[in-house]
Amino acid sequence: MVSEAKSAIISKMTLSVGKDPAFATDYDWFLACALAARDRATLRFLEGKRVTASDGKKRVYYLSLEFLIGRQLTDVLSNLSLLDVFRAALEDLGVDYERVRSAEPDAALGNGGLGRLAACFMESMATLGIPAYGYGIRYDHGLFRQVIYDGWQEEYPEDWLSFGTPWEFLRTDVVFNVGFGGSVETYVTPAGITRYTWHPGEVVHAVSYDTPMVGWRGRSVNPLRLWSARAVDPLRLELFNRGDFAGASSDQARAEAISKFLYPSDETPSGQELRLRQEYFFVSASLQDLLSRHRRIYGDLHSLPERAAIQLNDTHPAVAIAEMMRLLLDEHGLPWNEAWAITSATFSYTNHTLLPEALETWPLAVFERLLPRHLQIIYFINNLHLEAAKKAFPEEPELLRSVSIIDERDGRKVRMGQLAFVGSHAINGVSALHTDLMRKTTFRDLNRIYPDRIQNKTNGITFRRWLHQSNPGLTAILKEVCGAEVVDNPEVIERLAAHAGDSALQDRIRAVKLANKTALAKVIAERTGVRVDPAALFDVQIKRMHEYKRQLLNLLETAALYDAIRANPDADWTPRVKIMAGKAAASYVNAKFIIKLANDIAQVVNNDPAVRDLLKVVFLPNYNVSLAEVIIPAADLSEQISTAGMEASGTGNMKLALNGALTIGTLDGANIEIRDNVGNDNIFIFGLTTDEVSYRRERGITAGQAIAASPMLAGVLNAVSGGRFSPDDPGRFVQLIDGLRGADRYMVTDDFDSYYAAQRRVDACWNSGEPWTRSAIINIANMAWFSSDRTIAEYAREIWNVPVDL
Ligand code: H2P
């Protein structure tokens, strides 16, 4: 095996990379290994496609604007059971696997949880043997690279593709035309039927690239098919010959802009025509592709719902409902009712947020300019939908406003959530609480009209990447204590619980954690210059920077703790390292100020000899999947402190608990289900509940009361807004803090005291030693349910109607 791998790697190095191994760089070795690994995945990949077609198996199509896959090499090798073999082969060749692995660029084709969920789902679908295609965009530049300069975030283009990627196959024969703009022609057939033809004003090519997604033990390999935009004519020769070189390539530049770069999720939607172009581009190509596959295999389109399930990952691909109707009506000549029956039986939609500003809408004018035929179709769908609503609830004209796909208030808009809901047979939330809130708030009226559509599918994470690969030390212990089958069946992790009090096991768990923390401490020193003690409590908050996720609450507590330590330096403090990482959308001013505050606090605290090693603050730049793989196994405390009702689920919370971190969190999203699984004694819950949050909101209770009641809070707000951490610019944080003193939309002030108190419970538990480790073990033991294999099995059975044996 090892010798085979060695010759495969050498052969790729010489014949594909074109390098003499003696002169190969780490990146060359990565290329050679990736190509050798891809060969092994490809045979299975092709075989899977053949069998699916010949056996008439139903396929799942997962449409997502984001796939946050990160690095692939370890994932692919490990899932093909070749990791040790390749490691040994490289060692024989005098090459260190770790360096080779790190030479791979991190594919950051997503923002955060939503994109990473799509990547975990692709892996789980392949693991469960579900034939699936992931469809998305092959962005030249993924999420921006974050550089922290003088404490501020700066954004630079990310360049994962600048040297190509060895994982993908270009499919030169899978190219589709995607149109934009133009006009719609109406005509009546001799049989008296009105038909429509769309004449787009502009056409671009969608070119496909397939990356194999390998399931555990290579059970199956599915394609992630990403579309790249190309101009139909790369160059306008007549302009070029006249010397207008820029004009000659302007069509190309306009077309290629579509797959140039991933939008950060919280950019304001206004004026972002390009984003709508991106959405329609990949949706149209994907639907054309899957319809042509279906016709090739089965002939007739009426059987589509039996052979295909299309999952919309949030509303970003929701225009697919209108595009499917257009293709069936205009291109394939089906009558409306048949087309609608096929569409609604095939589509399902996952909602990931209830934040009003994140619910996608498009101004009618933009929509009409870009997609005139689709707007007609949407009007038609809406008319039928409103008719049905009127019939069901004749006494409630108000209801029509809330369920309409067209928002008639301040400037008419298309509401993508309503469109996705109306066109799907199943709609799901991503945690029990979130789904409940969907039914009660945002989709309340739609839920009354279509009462059985909303389901819950609590998110999950793939244990292959987030436990086995990223934490081999812990995995080795689990194999020994729970049995080697733990890597195939996470449920046996539960066996660990019986040994939670065993001091030998506790010592081993602590030793693994310490080793992981030492590795993280090294990264922290390299990237920030700050030296931290691995024996201290590592307190971690890693996620997109957003006010509802309340990094600011964490920072205020840090500032208060700092003051408390200074006031009483000889007390029995728990040495802590506060570690934060995350990116702020480029246009999100407050989130960027919060990053600056984190760095300003770090500057003051880390350089104050009075606090010694009792408190250190670190903001790690450029958070991505690879960095998460280092931070998560090293965390002692997991910060999941969003305002109750605002975090749909969270998945970082699951990764951290699985790796033995205890959670400090609100009763929000999947935190509630984590608590139910690990038990109240093994988690630190604090803060307002969802009901209390809405009560305050409805009554307009603002921050005044909380501040008046808490001298510590008042003190810390004054300190931050008075320039205590920003002596170079004392007014820097006035506005940020004034936001808390006023509306405090995210109720930071209301939760401050209970958060501070919960942190002191954390200190006491940590100081007690044994009970902490016991709780950590109980957390690990009870996380099996959060495997994305469980989540995908539920989607398969309850939404997609696809067989699965789990
Ligand atoms: C979002 C939600 C999370 C959820 C995730 C996946 C949009 O991710 O906010 O609560 O777990 O989708 O369903 P994020 O905030 O991490 O970008």
Automatic annotation (TrEMBL):
UniProt keyword terms in alphabetical order: Carbohydrate metabolism, Glycosyltransferase, Pyridoxal phosphate, Transferase
EC number: 2.4.1.1
Domain of life: Bacteria
Swiss-Prot/TrEMBL cofactor(s): pyridoxal 5'-phosphate
PROSITE patterns (alphabetical): PHOSPHORYLASE (PS00102)
Catalytic activity: [(1->4)-alpha-D-glucosyl](n) + phosphate = [(1->4)-alpha-D-glucosyl](n-1) + alpha-D-glucose 1-phosphate
GO molecular function: 1,4-alpha-oligoglucan phosphorylase activity
Function text: Allosteric enzyme that catalyzes the rate-limiting step in glycogen catabolism, the phosphorolytic cleavage of glycogen to produce glucose-1-phosphate, and plays a central role in maintaining cellular and organismal glucose homeostasis.
Family stated for the protein in its record: Belongs to the glycogen phosphorylase family.
PANTHER family: GLYCOGEN PHOSPHORYLASE (PTHR11468), GLYCOGEN PHOSPHORYLASE, LIVER FORM (PTHR11468:SF3)
The name this protein goes by in its record: Alpha-1,4 glucan phosphorylase
Organism: Terrihabitans rhizophilus
